[in-house]
Amino acid sequence: MSKSPRKSAENPRVILDARDVVVEYPSKGFRRPPFRALKSVSLDIRPGETVGLVGESGSGKTTFGRAILGLAPVASGSIKYDNQELVGMAKADRRRLAGEIQVVFQDPYTSLNPAMAIAEILTEPLIAQGTSNAQASVEVARLLDQVGLPSDSGERLPREFSGGQRQRVAIARALALKPRLIVCDEPVSALDLSTQARVLDLLVEIQERTGVAYLFVSHDLAVVRHISHRVAVMYHGEIVEYGDCAPITENPEHPYTRRLLMAAPVPDPAAQRKRRLERQLLVEAGALSA
Ligand SMILES: Nc1ncnc2c1ncn2[C@@H]1O[C@H](COP(=O)(O)OP(=O)(O)OP(=O)(O)O)[C@@H](O)[C@H]1O
């Protein structure tokens, strides 16, 4: 894992442009108002860039990723992908875009069909988009190589792989249709620390090779800091801090971001002492509860 935050991606053109997005889930009780999970969220992503979306459980991160994928009830606002409005887009048009916007989920144990061999899992989206069987086999070999899995992996079932290897399969499947944007929803949080680092490095390497952009959703600021060019901090359905990775993760302005930063593990004892002191100062200033 590289230690410093990543430098900003250079291409300023925007691939995803979300403006004032409001998502409301229906409430269960009779005549109860809907629950507003996103309250006017605006965020953009440039080609080849990683934007980290960080926040505590329930803050709305997954909901935002789902809104991009057309899986959350957007009440108002706009989400443009490559200048095309995704909100309210007809299903047929959405299907056409399916290859360009892909997703990698958190749990590599449930996101792969256990009854399908890896080659089938990787071939399925290719065949659905009209790729011939012969070409699909060539692509499977290329994808396995791209994610660092042995070339004979295609014949095996998901249960024969470790969590990290399964997540590599999930990444390969997401890459099959050469997407320009991947929503990565907590893609490493189910993995142990050293596997996390290897999967993060793989994502970076793929991005450098292909120019794919990531929305990287995580509750872990340390992980987000490692992979992101820019960071958005989400709190109770709103973005409270948003900008280049280094200033936000090194010197956050919002008390909530400081709290997240303090929750991130720091192995260096001197840094831990500094963090304890900073935490104490924040408690004294009333920005944090003891
Ligand atoms: N389908 C749904 N129906 C009703 N409420 C929902 C639904 N999905 C999410 N919520 C609520 O919306 C809020 C945001 O949830 P979301 O899953 O987006 O948060 P998150 O930040 O991704 O949390 P986590 O890290 O735990 O996944 C939560 O209060 C959640 O209970």
UniProtKB/TrEMBL annotation:
Pfam families: ABC_tran, oligo_HPY. CDD domains: ABC_NikE_OppD_transporters. The keyword Cell cycle does not apply. SUPFAM superfamilies: P-loop containing nucleoside triphosphate hydrolases. Keywords: ATP-binding, Nucleotide-binding, Transport. The keyword Protein biosynthesis does not apply. Gene3D superfamilies: P-loop containing nucleotide triphosphate hydrolases. GO terms for biological process: peptide transport; transmembrane transport. It comes from the Bacteria. GO terms for molecular function: ATP binding; ATP hydrolysis activity. Residues 16-261 form the ABC transporter domain. PANTHER family: D,D-DIPEPTIDE TRANSPORT ATP-BINDING PROTEIN DDPF-RELATED, TRANSPORT ATP-BINDING PROTEIN. Belongs to the ABC transporter superfamily. This is ATP-binding cassette domain-containing protein.
